[in-house]
Amino acid sequence: MASSRQLGGHRRRSRTRPTTPLTCHNPAVTIIRIEDIRRNETAAVFVGREHGANVSFFISTCRRGEGADPHRHPYEETFVIQEGTAEFTVGGETFEVGAGSIVVAPAGITHSFKGASDGIMRSVNIHPAAEMAAEFD
Fold first, then answer.
1. 3-state secondary structure string, 13-74?
2. What is the pTM of this model?
3. Which residue segments constitute the domains of the chain, with CATH numbers given?
4. What is the C-alpha separation between 129 and 137, in angstroms, rounded?
5. Phi-psi domain of 65 (left: phi exceeds 0; alpha: psi -120 through 50; beta: other)
6. What is the tens place of the pLDDT at every residue in 74-89?
7. How many CB atoms lie within 10 A of CB 110?
8. What would you measure as the largest C-alpha separation in the chain, in angstroms?
């Protein structure tokens, strides 16, 4: 049975800040440190709703075999592979892509991914929604 749940969520860890603050004098601009949205060593999560944005994303860092279990979204998910190699399964087809690749998993189609490199796989996983939602198989 599939389960539905919101992804991301607000959870901050206390960290020492760099001595140079991130500042902008335009009040319409929001600047967020990746470390302030890091949930654990494998994922930083930007939930757009929490920052006045209509897009959300994960920054994923996975070792070989680590990644997301099969799931689907009511919107497409776009993956930008920045480093290493990833193994994707989208709609039952499994394939590998490397750094510099972009993968778009269509709305409503079950997909998963995992690191396939001896080193790390780093990706930005973009959700065109202010709040992420998924159904897991």
1. CCCCCCCCCCCCCCCCCCCCCHHHHEEECCEEEECHHHHCCCCEEEEEEECECCEEEEEECC
2. 0.84
3. 40-136 (2.60.120.10)
4. 21
5. left
6. 999 999 999 999 999 9
7. 17
8. 50
